[in-house]
Amino acid sequence: MTAKIIDGKARAAKIRETVKSAVAALKATHGFEPGLAVVLVGEDPASQVYVSSKVRQTEECGMRSIEHRLPADTPEAELLALVRSLNEDPSIDGILVQMPLPAHIDSDAVVLAIDPAKDVDGLHPENAGRIVLGKSGLVPCTPQGCVILTKDALGDDLSGMNAVVLGRSILVGKPVALLLQNENCTVTMAHSRTRDIPALCRQADILVAAVGRPEMVRGDWVKPGAAVIDVGINRVAAPEKGEGKTKLVGDVAYMEAAEVAGAITPVPGGVGPMTIACLLANTVRAACRIREIEEPAL
Ligand SMILES: NC(=O)C1=CN([C@@H]2O[C@H](COP(=O)(O)OP(=O)(O)OC[C@H]3O[C@@H](n4cnc5c(N)ncnc54)[C@H](OP(=O)(O)O)[C@@H]3O)[C@@H](O)[C@H]2O)C=CC1
Ligand SMILES: Nc1nc(=O)c2c([nH]1)NC[C@@H]1CN(c3ccc(C(=O)N[C@@H](CCC(=O)O)C(=O)O)cc3)C=[N+]21
Fold first, then answer.
1. Does ligand 2 lie within 6 Å of residue 42's CB atom?
2. Residue-level pLDDT at 1
3. Quick one: residue 41, left, alpha or beta (phi over 0 = left, psi -120 to 50 = alpha)?
4. Listed residue (74, 25, 84, 8) closest to 271, CA to CA
5. Alpha-carbon span 53 to 116, nearest angstrom
6. N or C, which end of the chain is more exposed by having fewer CB within 10 Å?
7. How many angstroms separate the first and last alpha carbons of the chain?
8. Where is NADP(+) bound in this sequence (predicted)?
9. Runs of H (alpha helix) within 185-270
10. Distances from the Cα of 4 to the Cαs of 12, 150, 264, in angstroms?
């Protein structure tokens, strides 16, 4: 079997078109443009790339984008003060603080300081709690993207399917597992202490890999016909491209898994672009909820 490739890049472009139309309609009927603030502390090169694409895509959708780049040694108090000023700023509807933060900053304290109504990353305990309760809040972007791509592959009704989620981080693994449970999947969460992960994975109709281990999931871990959602973004050496060259690989050994799976997301071009598209959609949702106006279907 050769898997259908789930084109996250194309799906993300479609979401951005919908967001763009929704933003134009809000401007015409309510006279405002949603605004997103992205905060980056330090000079991590990968983070700089993501932040630049977030800014560009926000503007392409007709929204306002504000970027704050702070030096790596910024005191926690200063970052907290910035977050509070963004909370108060009526031109800002969404706040994203890029993770990870430098070690001297307590990231829990920073997330807690974000107004939950503007928490477009869905990381504030209030939004995290809403997912646990199965209530609608602001849903974290990468997990939202994973569910959309899964439904594209398997159809809207995921009831009764076995899902295995590798990884239990606050940003990805845990919320993905909860969202799939809210879709009536039977969900198993695996992590670094889980026994016999390959056998567990072979039970999965939906296999989500979010561990940050390059190509950890092998072809013989995949149930024939399964949907494989590869969240991992790992930069590894690529000597075949020349000395000192690198490439991006996922947490799944793509070529092997694609021989067995029914559908699979590539890296790059899978979950990554969906994350940013969902961030833009969340910013529009936040802007509408803050103003108590009807939300467009996104
Ligand atoms: N596409 C996108 O938009 C995004 C991609 N990413 C990528 O997704 C990956 C995961 O990110 P993130 O969740 O933030 O990572 P974290 O490092 O925060 O979490 C990794 C999780 O994987 C588990 N884990 C690590 N090694 C193993 C192993 N050998 N066997 C089983 N479980 C293991 C850890 O277990 P334990 O809890 O026991 O330590 C942990 O729960 C990374 O490659 C990251 O770059 C992240 C965010 C967005
Ligand atoms: N508060 C917070 N929220 C996040 O959502 C968050 C974060 N911090 N920290 C870092 C991770 C990582 N992340 C990605 C976003 C887009 C791509 C993406 O667009 N990737 C492209 C290619 C990227 C490239 O070529 O380098 C792709 O997979 O096709 C990847 C990864 C969001 N994260």
1. no
2. 60
3. beta
4. 8
5. 24
6. N
7. 34
8. 167-169, 233
9. 197-201, 254-260
10. 17, 12, 6
How would you classify the pairing of strands 246-249 and 234-237? antiparallel
The tens digit of pLDDT for each residue in 92-125 reads: 999 999 999 999 999 999 999 999 999 999 999 9
pLDDT band at 196 (very low <50, low <70, confident <90, very high): very high
Give the confidence band of 226 by pLDDT, cuts at 50, 70, 90: very high
DSSP string, 86-114: HHH-TT--EEEEPSSPPTTS-HHHHHHHS
In this structure, what token pair is assigned to residue 23? 């933003």
Residue 26 phi/psi, 5° resolution?
-65, -40
Which mutation among 249, 274, 275 tests ligand 2's pocket best, with the greatest number of atoms within 8 A of CB? 275
CATH for 141-272 is 3.40.50.720
CB of 145 within 6 A of ligand 2: the answer is: no
Domain regions of the chain by residue span: 33-120, 141-272
217 has pLDDT over 90: yes
Side chain identity at 30, as an amino acid letter?
H
- State the closest ligand 1 atom to the C-alpha of 234, by its place in the atom list counted from 1: 43
Ligand 1, atom 21, lies closest to the CA of 167
Q: Residue 229 pairs with which residues in a beta bridge?
A: 208
The C-alpha atoms of residue 264 and residue 178 are separated, in whole angstroms, by 21
Q: Per the structure block, which two tokens stand in for 143?
A: 């997990």
- Ligand 1 binding site (Cβ under 6 Å of any ligand atom): 142, 166-169, 171-173, 190-194, 197, 210-213, 231-234, 271-272, 275
Cα 22 to ligand 1 centroid, rounded to whole Å? 33
> Considering only CA atoms, which residue is closest to atom 2 of ligand 2?
98
Q: What is this structure's pTM?
A: 0.97
Q: What CATH number should be reported for the domain whose range is 33-120?
A: 3.40.50.10860
Asked, colleague to colleague, whether 33-120 and 141-272 share their fold, the answer is yes
Mean pLDDT of 124-152: 96
